[in-house]
Q: What sequence folds into this?
């Protein structure tokens, strides 16, 4: 099967800055793919390389089997939802959505009909005659989505599309985007710095750092089996265990990760456990996060609501199953 | 600051404001009145008699037509050059970063800050150094230096308000460079260019100082008027010309005012 998007040793350097450095990547057709990473990690540059706004310094990019280097953005069957939406302020909503069809020379009646249909798809029917300035942030986001989808792209790129929305709206849009993607079957590539968003929406996630991909995998893989300290730390705040600690508890001199919810905290002293001091308690609603100090090593544990909580400064005993310690392949 | 819209200004302030406006505009009316006077050698008040014959006299003076034609030609060409170069320069400065960008920005604006006499002298000596004879084009060149600034300033302000991703969005949706310019860039900067162009045209049309250094023996309308005032013969002809110029320029200025007012509202609401 041909990949929707394929990177082979793709680099994009700006002078001495290696924004993207020798990245290999294969995105399957129909996949919801997330590029996750802190700002400046190269994820947005990767998206712009696919859109055609950037050209690779070296390496090969293919979109559905066709080489994309040197092909301008307007000759790619790829559309983008921009972070700031980039709606055209002088056109009404319907003309904004129909723009892609207009520049392709499709007749007025036909393109406005298609634009109406697409507006209904993003649940904004009847908004066509409004100007972008009259819409709320969430509505503009939907218009931007409709404007990209009306061209029936093979790949839809989304650049932090939910970043400017408030929490409630963001959660609704996450579900809607996911449903839309499944019903259209279009490949979605989604850039975000929010690991919760990436994990909840994507079929697969690529974690970026410093122009490299640190790990590619399903959200479950990334969350449960981070390959490196960076991934463990960036995705869902796993505890990173140094080799000395791991050797003591599982026998191998290797870096490892341990999920906070895998740590059990007991208030009484127990010779089988590890003594720890409670440094801080953070109430999160469904659970409470406890910061612990184990001989100078800082660990976090999650205690579900309803279970007895220790007090700050109290000495407790922690324990965990040895199988829960995940050795990281990405660390020597 | 009081923000009460119903509160009325004190009567003294109203009188002062009215007096100020009258001071500005009564001389204009005087010019109109003198266009009808029967006294042709000096400006005598009150006019000894009223006549409309100066309109016919003006109509039949070929030097008026020549000066007017030259002024219109120079203003039109200078404005066209300013719109093209000013817009391109504004696009470069506001849409990309390159070495020397701030310097270029400053150099473009400089001609309007420089006294016209400096621009005039330097252009004249440059022309004579390069053995360029005076022609319509030397006047156009002189006028373009400050016309570009006006268009550039208008365009730069508009480009700064236009998000760069809008142009990328247009490419992304399948529009090539020309289509993007036609459908996205032009509608967004059009009113700014119109306003800048009108202003550039007006500046060029009544320019005297730079023109005296770059015109040689040619006469643009303002230079013709200046010369005419010195001669004590058929003086009201100058007033007739002035009156026609005021009336004719008022229309496009009003049009530009209404056009840009609406345009600004549309562009502003898109933010």
A:
């Amino acid at each position: 099967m041909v990949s929707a998007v394929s990177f082979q040793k793709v680099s994009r350097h700006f002078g001495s800055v290696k924004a993207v450095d020798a990245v290999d990547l294969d995105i399957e057709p129909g996949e919801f793919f997330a590029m996750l990473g802190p700002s400046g990690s190269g994820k947005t540059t990767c998206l712009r390389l696919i859109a055609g706004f950037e050209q690779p310094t070296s390496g090969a990019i293919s979109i559905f089997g066709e080489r994309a280097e040197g092909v301008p953005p307007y000759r790619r069957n790829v559309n983008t939802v921009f972070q700031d939406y980039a709606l055209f302020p002088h056109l009404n909503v319907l003309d904004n959505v129909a723009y892609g069809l207009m520049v392709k020379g499709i007749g007025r009646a036909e393109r406005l009909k298609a634009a109406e249909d697409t507006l209904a798809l993003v649940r904004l029917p009847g908004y066509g005659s409004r100007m972008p300035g009259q819409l709320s942030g969430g509505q503009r986001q939907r218009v931007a989505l409709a404007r990209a989808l009306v061209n029936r792209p093979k790949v839809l790129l989304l650049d932090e599309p939910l970043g400017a929305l408030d929490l409630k709206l963001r959660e609704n849009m996450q579900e809607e985007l996911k449903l839309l993607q499944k019903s259209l079957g279009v490949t979605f590539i989604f850039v975000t710095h929010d690991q919760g968003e990436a994990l909840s929406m994507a079929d697969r996630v690529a974690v970026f750092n410093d122009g490299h991909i640190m790990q590619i995998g399903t959200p479950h893989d990334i969350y449960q089996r981070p390959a490196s300290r960076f991934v463990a730390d960036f995705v869902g705040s796993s505890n990173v265990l140094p080799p000395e600690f791991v050797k003591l508890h599982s026998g191998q001199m290797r870096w490892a990760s341990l999920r906070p919810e895998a740590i059990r905290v007991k208030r009484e002293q127990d010779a089988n456990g590890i003594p720890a001091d409670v440094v801080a308690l953070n109430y999160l609603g469904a659970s409470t996060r406890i910061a612990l100090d184990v001989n100078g090593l800082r660990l976090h544990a999650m205690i579900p609501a309803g279970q007895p909580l220790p007090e700050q400064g109290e000495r407790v005993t922690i324990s965990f199953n040895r199988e829960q310690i995940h050795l990281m392949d990405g660390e020597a | 600051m009081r923000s009460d819209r119903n509160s009325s200004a004190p009567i003294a302030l109203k009188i002062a404001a009215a007096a100020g406006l009258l001071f500005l505009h009564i001389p204009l009316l005087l010019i109109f009145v003198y266009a009808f006077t029967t006294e042709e050698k000096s400006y005598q008040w009150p006019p000894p008699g009223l006549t409309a014959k100066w309109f016919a006299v003006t109509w039949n003076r070929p030097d008026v037509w020549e000066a007017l034609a030259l002024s219109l030609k120079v203003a039109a060409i200078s404005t066209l050059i300013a719109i093209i170069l000013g817009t391109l320069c504004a696009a470069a400065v506001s849409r990309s970063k390159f070495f020397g960008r701030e310097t270029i920005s400053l150099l473009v604006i400089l001609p309007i800050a420089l006294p016209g006499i400096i621009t005039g002298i330097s252009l004249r000596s440059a022309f004579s150094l390069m053995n360029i004879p005076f022609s319509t084009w030397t006047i156009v060149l002189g006028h373009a230096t400050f016309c570009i600034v006006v268009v550039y300033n208008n365009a730069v302000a508009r480009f700064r308000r236009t998000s760069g991703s809008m142009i990328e969005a247009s490419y992304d949706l399948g529009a090539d460079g020309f289509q993007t310019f036609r459908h996205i860039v032009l509608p967004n900067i059009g009113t700014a260019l119109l306003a800048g162009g009108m202003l550039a045209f007006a500046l060029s049309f009544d320019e005297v100082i730079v023109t005296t250094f770059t015109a040689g023996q040619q006469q643009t309308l303002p230079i013709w008027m200046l010369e005419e005032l010195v001669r004590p013969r058929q003086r009201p002809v100058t007033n007739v010309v002035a009156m026609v110029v005021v009336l004719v320029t008022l229309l496009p200025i009003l049009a530009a005012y209404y056009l840009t007012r609406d345009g600004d509202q549309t562009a502003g609401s898109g933010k």
Q: What stands out?
A: Chain A has nine helices and 18 strands. Residues 237-327 of chain A form a domain with the OB fold (Dihydrolipoamide Acetyltransferase, E2P) fold (CATH 2.40.50.140). Chain A has two domains: 5-233, 237-327.
